[in-house]
């Protein structure tokens, strides 16, 4: 199958996932608002501490807000497109990976559109803090306009880095029992494959 065909199939699966989520518009709006409020409350706690004690070891509120926004937007971008990669271990342990293995497409292509999430609350909150932080640092003369495209590049790079790290996490499980369970589930998956075919 051609790459364009895989890409068209991926777009179709994403559209289907979005359409299914939009069946419950009120849930989507409330989840976005609550997610934004949770993220803002996390940053406000840090902001209150900095407001009370001033800069901590030379880090100003705008600088910490910038780092917070970059991490939030990178994680949001990754979770929007690769949320189920984060839960790959669930597929392995529960034996749901064989459903993806029997589809006539690459496993990652089948996995990525599953539960595609539009994280509007996190995007709005992260975007607001990023704009506020950049404006504050530009006003103080710390950075210039070139920081804007570099910030967008950093967000994209952060999302790309998070993707393979979540793919590797099931392999790097630290607990001996968890890794033994993981290996057992992999062995069970391989034993099931011949019977599926």
Can you describe this structure?
The chain has helices at 3-21, 25-53, 61-86, 88-94, 97-101, 107-111, 120-139, 147-168, 176-196. With 197 residues, it is an all-alpha fold. Residues 193-197 have low confidence and may be disordered. It is built from 9 helices and no strands.
Tell me how many strands there are: 0
Helix tally equals 9
Which H/E pattern describes the elements? HHHHHHHHH
Class from secondary-structure proportions: mainly alpha
Termini separation: 21 Å
Helix content: over 70%
Biggest sheet statistics: none
Strand content bin: under 5%
Report the uncertain regions: 193-197
Q: What form results from the Cα inertia axes?
A: elongated
What is the typical, i.e. mean, pLDDT? 77
**Could you tell me the radius of gyration in angstroms?**
21 Å
């Amino acid at each position: 199958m051609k790459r364009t065909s895989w890409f068209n199939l991926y777009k179709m699966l994403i559209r289907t996932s979005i359409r299914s989520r939009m069946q419950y518009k009120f849930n989507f709006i409330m989840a976005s608002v609550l997610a934004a409020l949770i993220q803002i409350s996390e940053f406000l706690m840090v902001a209150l501490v900095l407001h009370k004690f001033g800069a901590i070891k030379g880090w100003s509120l705008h600088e910490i807000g910038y780092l917070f926004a970059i991490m939030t937007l990178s994680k949001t971008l990754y979770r929007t497109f690769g949320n189920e990669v984060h839960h790959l271990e669930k597929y392995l342990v529960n034996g749901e990976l064989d459903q993806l293995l029997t589809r006539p497409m690459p496993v990652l292509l089948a996995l990525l559109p599953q539960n595609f999430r539009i994280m509007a609350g996190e995007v709005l909150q992260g975007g607001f803090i990023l704009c506020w932080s950049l404006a504050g640092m530009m006003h103080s003369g710390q950075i210039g306009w070139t920081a804007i495209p570099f910030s967008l590049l950093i967000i994209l790079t952060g999302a790309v880095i998070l993707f393979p790290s979540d793919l590797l996490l099931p392999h790097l499980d630290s607990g001996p029992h968890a890794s033994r369970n993981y290996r057992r589930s992999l062995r069970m998956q391989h034993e099931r494959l011949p019977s599926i075919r």
